[in-house]
Every structure is written in C-alpha cells, then in structure tokens.
Amino acid sequence: MTIDVDEEKCIGCGKCKEICPKGGYIWKVDDVAHVIGLEFCHACTLCVMKCPTDAIIFLRRPGDYEKYYGQKD
Ligand code: SF4
Ligand code: SF4
C-alpha cells in the first residue's frame, strides 16, 4: 500500500492532515502535502474522500497505478 500526492493538483489546504486520525505522524503540509509516516496509516481513506482537488492517489497493491492511471513516464 502506498499514498502519492499529485503536486499539480494539491493546493496545500491541509484537510488531509486534519481529517487523518494520525495526521501529525503521517502528513506534512507546506505548499503541498507530503506523506512522511506511511507506516502509521491504517488505510481508512478518509484523506482521499476529504481532499477537495482529488490530489491523493491511494494505491492498495503494487501495479495499481498502472492499472488505474496508465504507465508512469
Ligand atoms: S487535502 Fe488534498 S489539496 Fe489539501 S493539502 Fe491534502 S492533498 Fe493537498
Ligand atoms: S488513509 Fe486514513 S490513516 Fe491513512 S493517511 Fe489517509 S486518513 Fe490517514
């Protein structure tokens, strides 16, 4: 499992960190959001649902990115 943030879409609003039960451990938000503590994530996907710009890409399994978004360049 991994979480990516699309930096083109992220507006740095901090809602992902606010809603996350472990926000202080998992998220760092400046101009854009960064995942700094993925090991604390329990995959509730609240952050994904709360993000106003759909910037959070939540991938449950290796290979999901290619499956849903096409090949990375
Ligand atoms: S909620 Fe979405 S737009 Fe806001 S800081 Fe988090 S990733 Fe960026
Ligand atoms: S999936 Fe849940 S625990 Fe994981 S970063 Fe998002 S809100 Fe936090």
Describe how the helices and strands are arranged:
Blueprint: E1 2-5, H1 15-19, H2 23-26, E2 27-29, E3 33-35, H3 46-50, E4 56-59, H4 64-69
Bound molecules: iron/sulfur cluster (2 copies).
The site of one iron/sulfur cluster (SF4) has 16 residues, from helix 1.
Salient structural properties:
alpha+beta; globular; single chain; 4 helices; 73 residues; 4 strands; two-stranded antiparallel sheet; binds iron/sulfur cluster; 19% strand; Alpha-Beta Plaits
Total E-strand runs: 4
Order of helices and strands: EHHEEHEH
> Measured on Cα atoms, how large is the radius of gyration?
12 Å
Instruction: Look up the CATH topology.
Output: Alpha-Beta Plaits
The low-confidence parts are none
At the first level of CATH, the class is Alpha Beta
Helix content: 25-40%
CATH architecture: 2-Layer Sandwich
Task: Report on the architecture of this protein.
- The mean pLDDT is 92.
- This protein has one domain (2-69): 2-Layer Sandwich (Alpha-Beta Plaits), CATH 3.30.70.
- By secondary structure, it is α+β, with helices and mostly antiparallel strands.
- The chain has helices at residues 15-19, 23-26, 46-50, 64-69; strands at residues 2-5, 27-29, 33-35, 56-59.
- A two-stranded antiparallel ribbon has the order 1-4. The protein has a two-stranded antiparallel ribbon with strand order 2-3.
- It is globular.
- It binds iron/sulfur cluster (2 copies).
- One iron/sulfur cluster (SF4) binds at residues 5, 10-16, 29, 33, 50-53, 55-56.
